Structures are given as C-alpha cells and as structure tokens.
Amino acid sequence: MSNRTGAPLRVVIGCSREDGPAARAIAQRLRVDGLSPWLLADELEGQPDPLRALRDAVAEADAVIFCVSRRSCGPDGQPALDIARLSDLVRLGRPPISLVIALKLGVCDLHAEIPQARVIEIFGYSGYERLLAALRDHAENLRRAAAPPPEPEPPPESVSPALGLRGRYALSSLERQGQVARLGRGCARSVIMLAPDRALLISGGGAALIDARDHRALWSIDCPARCAALSPSGRLLAIAGGAQIFLWDLQDGRMRSQLSGHGGRISALAFSPDERSLASASDDRTVRLWRTGDDVASLASPLLASTPAHPDHVCSVAFSPDGTLLVTGGADRTVRIWRTLDRTLVQTLSGHGGAVEALAFSAVGDVLAVGSRGRSLRLWSIRGWRLLHSIDGHGGALECLAFSPDGSLIASGAADCTARIWQVADGTLRRTLVGHSGPVVGVSFVPEGDQLATLGEDDRLLIWRVADGAEAAALRPLSGRVTGLAFSPDGGHLAVGGGDGAVTVHALYEQVAPLSQHIDHRGAVGSLAFAEDGGRLITAASDRRVRSYPLSGGEGAILLQTHGALQSAIVAPGGRLMACTDGEGTVQIWQLGAEGGQFWRVLRGLRGRPRLLRFSPSAEALAVAAEDGAVQIWRLSVLDGDQLDPQMMIAGVAGRVRSLAFSDDGLSLATGAETGHVQIWQVSDGALRADLSGPGPAVVGLSFAPDGRSLAGGDAAGHVRIWKIAGPSRGKSGSRRREPDQASGHAGHAGAVDHLAYSPVGDILASGASDGMVRLWQV
Question: Could you tell me the CA-to-CA distances from 250 to 9, 192, 197, 257 in Å, in that order?
C-alpha cells in the first residue's frame, strides 16, 4: 500500500462494462479534485499481462471503489469480470486495503463477493460530496500515519485530552439510520471551561470544543444530549440522551460503550474522582452506578449497582472529591447523602424550596452547595451536615452552580437570566452578571479562577472578568429551539424558525454557511411558508407580526401586525393566507400579498377553545383542533362573512390532539394525540381510515410524504416513526379502512420532535426538535 506523503491519493475503481461511462465520469471528477483514480476498464486495456498490472495497482492503492448497479452481475448472478478480479485481490491483499467503498449507481443489492465496504449512493443527497469527504479524510489519516514523529516537546501530563482532540465524530447509528446532514448545534445544556480560551459546550446536538477567540469548533461529537459529564482527567465524556448513555474516549474520539437500563429520561451524570465509575440520575427515580473501563468485564457487565428508589424524580447527582460519598438531589426538595462503597443512606437534607436542580462540592470537599427551584442557594458543611448559609437573591429557579478553583467563591445561574457570584465564607453577593435574555443553564470558572463563563438559553456564551464583572468575550455558538420548518418549492432550500425569533435559510445542496439569517421577530417563529414562486419566505411569530423575506437577499418587511392575545398562528402553503387564534373562541383569517395583509374572515362557531390550526396544502381547507379533543374542518371556498359552523366534525380522536397534518391531495387528515395514538381520517366524511399507533409518548409532529403513501410522526421522547399507509383495504364502503405497514424509526433527538417536513420530491425528511437540532434523513 502507498504511504507517500504529499502525493495524490491513489484510488482503484472497478465496474462492469455497462457502467463504464458513469465510472469514467466519476474518475474524471476525482482527478479534477486532486485525486489519482485508476479505472480498470481503461488502464488494463492493451496490457500484455492484465492480472499482473491489476495486482501492482492494488498493491500501490490507498483506496478501492466498487461501482455497483443492477448491471454489475450477469444473467447467472455472478459479478462482472473486473469486479470479481478486484474483489479477489482486495480480500487476499496483504496488508489489507484500509478504505473500500461500494459506490451505488442506482438501487441494487451488494453481491456477496464484494468485501465489506462503506456504502455511498452517488446520486443520493450530497452523494459525491460524501464520497469526496471520505477519500480526503482517508488521505489525511494516511498522511498523519506516514509523517515523522513531531519534534516539539510533548505536552505536560496535566493537559486534558479534551484539549488535544481534533476532528468531527458522530454516532455511527445516525448514518445507519439514514442521516445525511444536521443543521446547527442545538440548545444550550452546559459549559466547562478547560482553558481561558477553550470552552467545552454541551448542547442538544452533542459536544464541541470552541475556541473563544475565533469561535471555531476544534472538535465536535454529534450525539443527542440532555446532559453530560467530563471525567476529572478530561479523558472520558459521558453524554446522555433519553434513557441511553454514550461514553466517549477523548483520547481518539471513539465511542467506548453505550449504557442502557434506565426506565426514564436521564437528568444528570457524574464521574467518580478515580474515573472508574459513572453515576446517572433519572426520571425513573433511581441512581445507577456504571463501570467505565474498556476491559472485557466492564463492557460485558457495565452496571455496578443502584441506589434504592427515591420518592420522586432524581434531578441531580455529584461525587465528593475523595469519592467516598454520592449526593443526589430530588424533585421532592431533598438531598440524600449515600456512602459510595455500599450505597448506605448517611444523611437526608430537607427544607429546600423546590426540586434540587444543581449540586456542587468545593475542591477540597468541605462544603456542599445546593441550588433548587425554590430560588435559594444553600451551603452545607460536610462536618455534621450543618447549614452554613441560606442565600436568596435570584428571581427564578437556580439552574447551575460552580465553585471557583480555590473554593472562595461560588457562581450560580438562574431562570431570571442572571448569574451571580457569592462569597463562600459569609454568603454575601460579590457580583451580579446581567447580559443574557434567557435562563442561564451553565456556569464555569476558568482553571485560573479569574474569569467565569455563563451559557444561556439565548444561545450565547459570555465570559466575564471576576474582579470587576466586566464582559470579556461574547459568542453565539448554538442554535435555539426549533419552532418551524419549510422546504422551498424546488427543494433546494430549507427555512428554520427558532424559539429566539431567528429565521435561518439553508441552501441544502451547497457546502456553505446558512444562506441567510434574520433575527427580527421578538418571539418564537411558529410558522413559515415559501411563496408559490419560491422567491419570498413568509413567517408568523408570537410577537403577532407576519414578515416577508426575499430569498435573493435584502431586508425583510412587516406584512401584518395583529392585536390582542395570540395563542397560535399559521401561514398557509404558498403564503397567501394566515390564520390565528387567541385560544378563546374565534379564529381569524387574513389575506397576505407581496406588500401587506388584510382581514378576510372570522370563524365563530367553534366547539371548544381552539389550540391547533393547520391549512390543507392548497389552502382550500382549515383544520382546527379544540381543547376538548374535537377536530373541525372548515372549507374556505364556501365561507361567507362570519362563519358559524364547520363543514365537517371529526369525532373519536384518541385523546387531546397535539399535531395535525393534511395529505398533499387534501383528502386525508392525520391526528397525533397526547396518548401516542396516530389516526388518519377522510376529510370528505370524517370516517376513520387508519389507526397507526398508541399508546406511548405524545405525538407532537406529523407530515405526509408528497405521494401520500407514507406518514412521519415525531413524539415527545425524541423519536421519528414512518408508517407505510398504502396497505390492503378492508370493507366495501367508500370510507375503506386500511391496515398500515410496520413503522420504521429514527432515533436522533434529545427533545420532542415537534416539526417534520418532506422535501417536494419526498426523498428527504427534515426533523426539528426542542433540542435545537434539525436533522435530514434520506427516506
């Protein structure tokens, strides 16, 4: 195998004779992009000893590509000659080829003769870009392996492995499930300052080490996250999403193990000081201790022990610095102290004003800090568990705590959008830090103790000087809660609405930053729609404003501003209509044009308080889900003035409705319920067409595929399911009921999947969740 440094990557390409033109075009493009392709069909022609030439090429190759299609095998089922020759040499080669790619030129199965290979669909979403990225990453790995050892002095042993890691890493299961891209990093979870200019950010999409000077991500891990913990040495990073824990080794970026066993969402993690065990707290009222080693025993039986069940959810967990004590904080407003060795309950600290959300030990372990939703901070002495100080001052629930390295100060972040620094000795306030517009969910001192980082739900990371409280740096490295999704009519752009009022437009088939971002709304952007010509994006937000943004660039314009309370607003596909409600008893409908909007109709005869609104794709009908579970359908073409009665009532929905979706032809309406049930109804007569699932987590997002043969549903637990709904029919009536096929699923979010959207041709499904992530799945 070649290990030449600086030379182009040598890639041997094999294909059938019929696939020669396609393979030749791919080879030419690789050559333009700086690689050195070697196509069997061309290179072996005229060779006196083709087998020897092929052996020599494979021996010098850095990578091998098999171009496969339905034409790769003959009528007898045997692979084409060039593919068979190449596969034999790859399997028998010594040393083995380290990168083998099966490049699908169409829908086909891989022949058993082809060695185990990474599969890429060249005509799938970003197919060539994914191929090129895989080859370039491989070339960089070969260059590093062949490079001479570095001359500089090795870093001191005290340097955290998290500081030396570089690259992008991801759960392999995401690619296996069909993820082709992710947009954004997700909502803020926590922050750890590893150096004055290095911030380890935990967000809904995973973890990233951010350079605070130029805002670059030095490394990132794509892994759904609700909480995380870094081991004391910085070697291990535990990330929890849902009921799963993923243990990553930051020495090389590989996932060491996956830990399962909790029956509910994991809310907190903590490593023991010796890093040999990990504690996890969960909504299932238990705390579990796990082995963290990569030896056979740890991987085969990772669970060490569990504490006895708590009376309520466990919200927080921490080890004492010497590892002898394990502390848990619960929703029952108490703190429990356990002896780590045998999980014996040593002490219970009661009287906190709310659920105990945050725990922290001082560096020497003599003081325990407790923060609760009761807005108070309590400092306890470990000797005798005596209360040292009960500190009030925050105007909201305490979310996070951190001691300074010398233990003289403690920082607290709260839902009142402030962070405060307190003197541990006497409990007095040292500084109030005001700069966030959302709850502060993370605080961390730099190792030197002279600066403090705060992370807010406004997606901002602020770094402050402790001495005078001045702001030293400000970054916006995260993306907020996803509140809306919309594909452009040509499928080339995806618009994302955020809970912070941001509207971002992504160019999906270009390897560039977002095409545009607008932060004009002063509230969550609940609905987006492209104009029919695709040239404008129409948005409606909780600030009661409807705005229009030209896709070609330039400033947006306010089309409409409603008055009074607003509970829900939605823009119709095509951007010609907008419906809104105050949640009391009426729905107003407005006509929208390029320059503004005007009032059109009001729906007064509603049964119950309206909670959800959904237009049909052609904007000819409006579905209204009421608080009592009833769904009403209003045909807009027959409205006359103040409409008093809907044209159709759907009864029998299995629980309170949390999501609605029309099929593209407008003939079917899907409902997702609080109970986890998904049902499909015929719009013409309200008959039940299919009952797909339930009970389970609430189904909070729904979307039909453009051909109407599939339905995607997102639930409150972060899962996406896709049902094939064109099953065999039963019965002879016009309202025939269909039995759905088994659902497929995607698990990639650590928050409720409220928003789903299919691309216009139906090959890509976008999912947006409360974890702040948008993921694109090839379906």
Answer: 28, 15, 19, 13
